[in-house]
Amino acid sequence: MEEIIEKNTFFIDIERTLLKWDNTVIGAEELVSRLRDSGKRVKFHTDNSLISRKAYARRLTSNGIMAEEQDILNSAYVAAQHLYQNDINKAFTVGESGLIEELGRKDIKVTETARNTVVGLDRKFTYDKLSKVMERSRKGKVFTLSNQRYFEKSSGLQPHQASINAAIREFTDTVNLGKPSEEFQDVFRDYFSYYPGNSVMIGDRKEDIVLGNELGMTTVAVMSGELNEEELKKAEGLEEPDYGLSSLHRLGKKII
After folding, report:
1. What's the CATH code, domain 4-74+182-255?
2. pTM here?
3. I need a surface site. Which of 65, 132, 170, 204 has the fewest CB within 10 A?
4. CATH number listed for the domain at residues 76-176
């Protein structure tokens, strides 16, 4: 097995791997800094569609991790790109500013007259919105952006999109555009420039590990989020990482 030290490009999940939304995870700033000081390329990815890539770059930078918009791929951008490539120029949305901004930048109109629906995390999800999705699902597709159960703020865990998806799936099938879907993989390959054999995927969920394995990278599970030691022992196939570490700090020791 190749040592991680030989790798030159690192793709790091944001939520619960680097950030707890409004604070960094212990060791995150040091890891990214040490990677870059060693000449490594660092890029970021997330299923969270609450804010845009540009806003994520600001959030990371304000927390001591320098980032530009082009360094980040989120599920809202994946949705916008997928709709654009399939000549879908309008959509009904369940979501917040990040999703609406990314769709708008691809000239996809957000409107209640659309047949197709894009569903992201929406902290103001209501029965009325659920009814509107149900109505449109009879005529068009329903795209979801994540199956994540929760994200974390410094004040504690917050519900993520899984519960919204569960409500929608009571009456219709959905197409997942979040990790580790083929659509997310396709956009990932086009968005970033990298060689799989020299790349590392780092994340706190099995979706991150499957994504990295599907893309042919070395995969690292960090037990700062949904994964724990017991789950990693049972992991098989595409869900099994090359490395399982208790913290980002331990990963840093392997690299430098």
Report:
1. 3.40.50.1000
2. 0.92
3. 170
4. 3.40.50.1000
